[in-house]
UniProtKB/TrEMBL annotation:
One Pfam family from the record: MerC
Protein name: MerC domain-containing protein
Transmembrane segments: 12-38, 44-65, 72-91, 97-118
Signal peptide (from-to): none
Length: 202
């Protein structure tokens, strides 16, 4: 899971690494290369263009995989146009503005990486969490029977409330206590999703 969460960072860091070590192709980063004592040293030689574009594609793959987890479109909405700008500068722009398109795309991907990092951190790596009303909620709740003390862990639904629950041990049929909307709110270790996000219950 950690590898998937960091694919976009690997691509973006690799992209800037390629640019810094290719000062002839990316004059904006020539100062950084000089500060490292590299001068006009070209680390990748004729492979610079292909390595750079490969890193861009790795970043996009990372953003897509992250989206499947946190369902936030912002990183994709930033990164995809940035990728288009970069490839446009390589294949369709052959004038003095090419390098500016390239830098715009690069820093767009950097911004997308920062936004994606925030979203991954916000949603964490919880395996029992889900999305409810656009927010991350814990879906696993352990119901404790008030009569016999039997415990049962269940995954709460996000599209319905459970009003009844039958204890597997003593067969007591549980109902929500007064003021509660479901059995999870009354007997569960975790409240139902609507309560977790602070909205009205079912």
């Amino acid at each position: 899971m950690k590898i998937i969460n960091n694919i976009d960072k690997l691509g973006t860091i690799g992209m800037f690494f390629t640019a810094i070590f290719s000062p002839c192709c990316f004059p904006l980063f020539a100062f950084a290369a000089s500060a490292l004592g590299l001068g006009s040293f070209e680390l990748f030689g004729g492979w610079t263009m292909w390595i750079f574009q490969g890193m861009v594609l790795i970043s996009i793959i990372g953003f897509f995989l992250s989206y499947r987890k946190h369902k936030c479109l912002y990183p994709l909405l930033i990164s995809i146009p940035s990728m288009v700008i970069i490839f446009y500068s390589y294949y369709f722009c052959n004038n003095e503005y090419q390098v500016y398109f390239l830098y715009t795309g690069m820093f767009g991907l950097l911004i997308a990486t920062i936004v994606n990092y925030y979203q991954n951190k916000l949603h964490g790596n919880c395996k029992t969490c889900g999305i409810y009303d656009g927010k991350t909620v814990e879906l696993k709740s352990t119901i404790t029977c008030p009569k016999c003390g039997h415990k049962k862990s269940k995954m709460m639904p996000t599209n319905a409330c459970e009003f009844f629950y039958e204890c597997e041990n003593c067969k007591t049929r549980l109902r929500p206590l007064e003021g509660d909307c479901c059995v999870y709110c009354s007997y569960g270790s975790v409240k139902c999703p609507p309560i977790q996000v602070g909205t009205a219950c079912c």
